[in-house]
Amino acid sequence: MAAIEALIRAGRRGDAAAMMEALAAAGNADALFALGLWRLGGHIVALDLPAARDLFRRAGEAGRLDGARTYVNLLAAGVGGAADWPDALARLRGMAQGGDFRSQSALALLDAMALAADGAPLSVPNGEPICEAPRALRFEALFTPQECAYLIEAATPLMSPSVVVDERSGRLVPHPIRTSDTALFPWLLADPAITALNRRLAVASGTALDQGEPLQVLRYTPGQQYRNHLDAIAGAPNQRIMTMLVYLTDDYDGGETRFVQAGIDHRGTCGDALLFHNALPDGRVDPCAEHAGLPVTRGAKLIASRWIRAKPFVTDA
Q1: Model confidence over 96-143: pLDDT tens digits?
Q2: CATH number listed for the domain at residues 128-309
Q3: Measured between alpha carbons, how far is 194 from 208 in angstroms, rounded to an integer?
Q4: Dihedral sign from CA coordinates of 248, 250, 251, 255
Q5: Three-state secondary structure along 253-297?
Q6: Dihedral sign, CA of 119, 120, 121, 123?
Q7: Cβ atoms 121, 90 nearer than 8 A
Q8: Residue 201 pLDDT > 70, yes or no?
Q9: What's the CATH architecture for 2-111?
Q10: Where are the domains of the chain?
Q11: What's the mean pLDDT in 36-47?
Q12: CB of 137 within 8 A of CB of 275?
């Protein structure tokens, strides 16, 4: 693998890809996994989600536990091919029985959920309106305390300073408007338990699973906040039409979600969710959706956040 990295540094990406593909064809587990990442990201070789999914499967069968985990994650979410929830669950159970602690934790959470055969929730949560402009709904106890704790535990080692979308470049950049820490769960990291929670958010919002951006967990400690902003992106061809927040903790002071123009401050208890619309029915940005996360004054506020697009959202893993 060192020789492949040297070729990349030398700008010889084609040669690097040929060497990696040869190693993968010979069944090298590390090469299979690395090539899967390349296929999923589309950086060194062409983007090919079905090929990536199969490469992770083969990496797992060749002995890479992270390959087996990644294949299960993609299989459960339907990335790179059709979703197969029963097969994903069976594979997860097999890894758990083999002693994989992460699989055991995810399986324990899933076993406590009321799910259909395809992993969808058996019931549709009902929201209580709290604001008309923007349209906002509160869902009491959408997540259980155990589910909130699971997300916090999974997110903690992944935390890094939060970023925002730069309107000129479209890139994610740090900005003083947003001073929290963020952990992101893209396809690679969204295990079946997280996918089941994402499905619950989709059902509650009346949208499809693939309309959601990757789930984020945000952490605000004393002094941290997200100043007045809009989640919608001006001119975006696939607009962020809704935002879904789930409050993962409630032992903190401050940190209310403020709808600026409506003059409403909202704060949920652990497991409560807040859904609000960022766009008008014609797709234009709704200025009434301007909101803020007020400064935390004591403790740590953690929330799960998912931006929901008008159409299926496709991004790098």
Answers
A1: 999 999 999 999 999 999 999 999 999 989 999 999 999 999 999 999
A2: 2.60.120.620
A3: 15
A4: positive
A5: EECCEEECCCCEEECCCCCCEEEEECECCCCCECHHHCEEECCEE
A6: negative
A7: no
A8: yes
A9: Alpha Horseshoe (1.25)
A10: 2-111, 128-309
A11: 93
A12: yes
